[in-house]
Amino acid sequence: MSRWSFSMGSAYQFHSWRVFVVVCALPCVSAVVALTFMPESPRFLLENGKHDEAWMVLKQIHDTNMRARGEPERVFTVNRIKVPKQLDELVEMQNESANPVLKVLYKIKAELRGIWLTFMKCFDYPVKDNTIKLAIVWFTLSFGYYGLAVWFPDVIKHLQADDYASRVKIHNNERIEDFTFNFTLENQIHRNGMFLNDRFISMKIRSVTFIDSSFLNCYFEDVSSVGSYFQNCTFVDSFFYNTDVDDAKLTNSRVINSSFHHNKTGCQMTFDADYSAYWVYFVNFLGTLAVLPGNIVSALLMDKIGRLSMLGGSMVLSGISCFFLWFGTSESMMIFMLCLYNGLSISAWNSLDVVTAELYPTDRRGTGFGFCNAMCKLAAVLGNLIFGSLVGITKAIPILLASSVLVAGGLVGLRLPDTRANVLM
């Protein structure tokens, strides 16, 4: 990991994970910069008395749409604009003296009351049923998606661990005398071993356990022991220099007339020592890469097959693909199913965004979308907690839970009204 690092002066050291965090933050910074070039909402401008600016934004939207339809000559005309009363005017009407403190308090109260009334309108006719159904779809899709996102990498890790453990080498009752170890020992178990006058120099010990072994007059220099332990071992007249062997790795072991000098400190683990650490990122990269064809397909077919067909079909197929994870017995098969699941679920996310925006009228669209997103975040938290608690315990419950939730949500999504040919309210 030290290869991917740089420094700024003598005070700041940027290692690989820090660079990774900075790179991940770049899209967010770019989005903030891009927002400064986007026009404000015409409704917001009208509510704040900026009629000319609102008209210019509407004209820009009209001209852009007409050019996309191949009719750039169409002229933008406005017959009537209903301007809502501005909040400041309501404050003045409520408080003739225009006391600054009371004006601020009333403005805050009016804002909160307006938010609450708008929220409650999402549960009035004719959008009440749509709000409930959308909340269910958002909740189920988020619960299954984010829950599996926590569970999946650990499944891969357990498969790797099982495969690694199946290849362990066991040495019993060995006796090694006057030998120099200057190579890597990996994935081994040594029981009742006797090491006499041996030298362990410039070597790595990876996932090796010494049990009931004795080390007499041994010399350890520049040794790294990742995932290795000495259980019930005895060290007599031994010398340790520049090693990471400490009390945490000497389990119930006796150290007699031995000394430790210049011990290594900090984490000694690298991607070379623990390949699974790199593999987790690579698997997530493959899963994210599988989203690309799903985005392309949903963009091309959204208007042809309909929002509801894509939403419900994608969720049902995602649930079915999730169920087949039960039969995954190898890393390659599990990774393939992960990519298939991500490719299908992204189509559901895309169509759900469109359906949610098109089912609400303008005065309730932002609030309704925000409520559905709140249900999404709640489901993500619950999914992380529930699926995280099942990591390493059982494979059946997470798979059945995610599959059933996704299929149920997809069937509810098919009951939503079709908005493909509707004019936005």
UniProtKB/TrEMBL annotation:
Keywords: Cytoplasmic vesicle, Glycoprotein, Membrane, Neurotransmitter transport, Phosphoprotein, Synapse, Transmembrane, Transmembrane helix, Transport. It is found in: Cytoplasmic vesicle, Secretory vesicle, Synaptic vesicle membrane. InterPro entries: LD_SV2, MFS, MFS_dom, MFS_sugar_transport-like, MFS_trans_sf, SV2. Signal peptide: none annotated. One of its GO terms (biological process) is chemical synaptic transmission. GO terms for molecular function: transmembrane transporter activity. Belongs to the major facilitator superfamily. PANTHER family: SYNAPTIC VESICLE GLYCOPROTEIN 2 (PTHR23511), SYNAPTIC VESICLE GLYCOPROTEIN 2C (PTHR23511:SF6). Its main location: membrane. It comes from Notothenia coriiceps. This is Synaptic vesicle glycoprotein 2C-like.
